[in-house]
Amino acid sequence: MESIKIADYMNRHPVTFTAQMPIAEAVELFLENNQIGGPVVDENRKVIGFLSEQDCLSKMLEATYLNENHYHVGDVMHKEPLTVKKESSVLDLAQQMTHHKPKIYPITDHDNKLVGIINRSAVLRAIDEHLKAMYSQGHTRLV
Predict the structure, then answer these.
(1) Which residues make beta-bridge pairs with 116?
(2) Residue 139: pLDDT band by 50, 70, 90 thresholds?
(3) d(CA 83, CA 86)
(4) How far is residue 42's CA from residue 32's CA, in Å, rounded to a whole number?
(5) Where are the domains of the chain?
(6) What angle do CA 102, 68, 20 make, to 5 degrees?
(7) If DSSP codes are grouped into helix, strand and coil, which group holds residue 58?
(8) Tell me: the pLDDT tens digits for 72-95?
(9) pTM higher than the cut 0.90
(10) Kindly report the CA angle at 66 between 41 and 102, in degrees rounded to 5?
């Protein structure tokens, strides 16, 4: 399991956001791309935050009540997101996901530049494929 690397299961072209982007624009990107969260990057693609649909929901609701929409991604993003490296083990990430809330993790290089994202579904797929391969090779029996 240690040999299963995040790089093999990551999304290399995720939707990203900037701190200056209006929340309404971010919501449109979420809806168009069926992504529930994503990294906030600066002009050099360094990860500076993370935005989720839940973050946007409260501000969009507030904008509805106030009849104005002046919030930006930087106003609501999580400023210290948990990130992982593409060389990391899927198993290690799976263990981390059982203890931390994020469903999506930005993947960064050694300069903290975004190279992709990985979500819980991709981690489950990696583990499932590994287990199926083990079963088909006769290493483990299903009980």
Answers:
(1) 107
(2) low
(3) 10
(4) 22
(5) 6-136
(6) 50
(7) helix
(8) 999 999 999 999 999 999 999 999
(9) no
(10) 35
